[in-house]
Amino acid sequence: MATVRLKKGLDINLLGAIQGQEISLTAPAQSVAVVPDDFHGIIPRMEKKEGEHVTCGEPLYHDKNHEAIKVVAPVSGTVKEVRRGERRHIDAVIITPDGGKDPIAHDLKRPAIEVLLESGLWVMMRQRPYDTVPSPDVRPRDIFVTAFDSAPLAPDLDVVLGDKRQYITRGVEVLKGMTDGKVYIGIREGQGIDVPGAEVTTFTGPHPAGNAGIQAANIKPVNKGETIWTMDIVTLARIGELFTTGKVSHDTVVAIDGEMVQQPRYARTVMGADLATVLKNELTNVAQSRIISGNVLTGVKVEADQWLRAPYRHITVIPENSKPDEFMGWASVNPNRFSIYRTFTTWLRGFKPAVSMDSRIKGGERAIVRTGEYDAMLPMDIYGEFLIKAIISGDIDKMEQLGIYEIAPEDFALAEFADTSKLELQRIVREGLDKLRAEMS
Questions:
Q1: Which residues of 98-139 form beta strands (DSSP E)?
Q2: Is 227 within 8 Å of 129 (Cβ atoms)?
Q3: What is the radius of gyration, based on Cα positions, of the chain?
Q4: Of 77, 344, 357, 410, which shows the fewest CB atoms inside 10 Å?
Q5: Alpha carbon distance 192, 181 (integer Å)
Q6: Would residue 354 count as lying in a domain?
Q7: Burial group, residue 415, by CB count within 10 angstroms (0-12, 13-18, 19+)
Q8: Do residues 372 and 238 share a domain?
C-alpha cells in the first residue's frame, strides 16, 4: 500500500465538532426536494408534473442532451411543486412524502451502465475534466474514490457508511468493468480499508487531502484528452448495494455541527429532507445563524425552510456576522483571533485550539498580488495564481497549459479562504470550466 504525504494545505479547527459516533434518528421529513443545480452539467427535462404520484427511485427528470441520465425521487409521494426561477430555470422539485418505503427494483441482468443511469446513482459521480456529471459516451481512464473528508467539521465517512461497508467490494467489481484502468481508493492513515481489486493509497497531510481530485493529481494526473471519474466511498457503497440487492437506499447519515448547534451529532434522515425537520430544536439562535448544506468552504448557504442538498452529508451552522462593530477590527490584539500568517498571537500557544468564525469576509475584492498564497493551499503540480489569471482573461490555450483539466472548484476552496484579494475563486474556476466545455463541445 503506497503512502502519499502532502504538506500543502491547512486544517481549520472550528468550534462545534461532533464528539462521539452515535447516530440519532430525525422525525420523518415533511417535504423532500431535489435541486437540479446539485448535478452540474445536466439540463433537466421533467418526466413528472405537479400533482402526480412518484415512487421512490422513479425518475423525476432526465438530461435534455442525454435522455438516459435520470434523476430520481428519493422518497415516494406526490410532486407538490416544480419551483422555477428566472427564465423558467428549475430551482427545486418538491415532494410531499406519503410514507412509502419500498424503492423500485432494477433488473441486474442489463449492462451495468444502464442500471446505474436508470437508478439515479450516475449523477452522484463526477468526471474530470469539467467537474460535471459523467458523459455515458466516454469510458474513463481511471476511477478515483476518496474514503475520507478532510474539510472543517466534516463527518467521519466510516460513521456515515455504517453497515453499508459490506457493499464496497461489490462496488469496486462493478466499476472495474467500466474502465480500462484502475479503481483507486484514497484513505487516511489508520483507516482500515483494504479492498480486493482496488489500488488503495494512504494520504497524510492537511485539507484538501480528502478531495478525490487532489488524490488523483498526486497519483495519476489528468491530461488533455483523458477522462476520469471521482466519487466518495459512500457513493461506491451505494453502487455495490444496488448491484447486490437491486435497489437503491436513499437514506443517509448527516453530520449536524458548528458553533450554533446545541449538541453536534450524527443524524439519520433521507436525501433532500427539509431542514425544518432535521434542525428542529437544534440551533441556539436561528436568527443569528448561517446554515450551510455542506462544509464552510464548499457548501451552499440555505435558509431554515429549505432542504438538505443531495451531494452533501453535512450541515454546518456558524454565526451570521456576529461582531460587525468589533473593536479595532482586523487590528485587534485578541489572542483568540485566527490567522494563517501569524498576524495574531494565537500561534504562541503551541497548539491549534478550536476557533470561532462567523460569516464575515473581512475585506474587499482587490487586485491579485503574487504572494504564493494559492500554491501554498493547493497540493497539485500547477501554478494556481497563473491559472486563475488565465481563466479571468479567457485565454483557453494558457488554461490548458496550466492544468485546468485537473481541477474542480472545490480544489480552490481553501485558497479562496486564504486569499487576501478576496476573489471568488470557486466561481471563477466554475466559469472557466464551463467556458472550456462549451468551446470543446
A1: 126-128
A2: yes
A3: 21
A4: 344
A5: 24
A6: no
A7: buried
A8: no
Whether residue 309 is contained in a domain is answered as no
Distance CA 217, CA 223 (A): 10
- Count of alpha carbons within 13 Å of 187, Cβ hemisphere only? 16
To the question of pTM greater than 0.85 for the whole model, the response is: yes
Q: Which of 188, 210, 245 is the last residue of a domain?
A: 245
Q: What amino acid is encoded at 419 in this protein? A: D
Confirm whether 58 is domain-assigned.
yes
In one-letter notation, the amino acid at residue 363 is G
Q: Does one domain contain both 371 and 225?
A: no
Measured CA distances, 243 to 74, 170, 173, 231, 279 (Å) = 18, 7, 10, 17, 33
Same domain, 106 and 240: yes
Q: Which of 193, 226, 245 is the last residue of a domain?
A: 245
* Residue 370 and residue 230 share a domain: no
Q: Determine the Cα–Cα distance for residues 197 and 191; give it in Å rounded to an integer.
A: 18
For residues 282, 287, 293, 298, the Cα torsion angle rounded to the nearest 10 degrees is -130
Phi first, then psi, for residue 90 (nearest 5°) are -80, 115
Q: How many domains does the chain have?
A: 2
What does the pLDDT profile of the chain (441 residues) look like in tens digits? Answer: 799 999 999 999 999 999 999 999 999 999 999 999 999 999 999 999 999 999 999 999 999 999 999 999 999 999 999 999 999 999 999 999 998 778 999 999 999 999 999 999 999 999 999 999 999 999 999 999 999 999 999 999 999 999 999 999 999 999 999 999 999 999 999 898 889 999 999 999 999 999 999 999 999 999 999 999 999 999 999 999 999 999 998 999 999 999 999 999 999 999 999 999 999 999 999 889 999 999 999 999 999 999 999 888 899 999 997 666 666 666 666 666 777 776 666 666 655 678 888 888 877 888 888 888 999 999 999 999 999 999 999 999 999 999 999 999 999 999 999 998 999 999 999 999 999 999 988
What cell was used for 289?
445563524
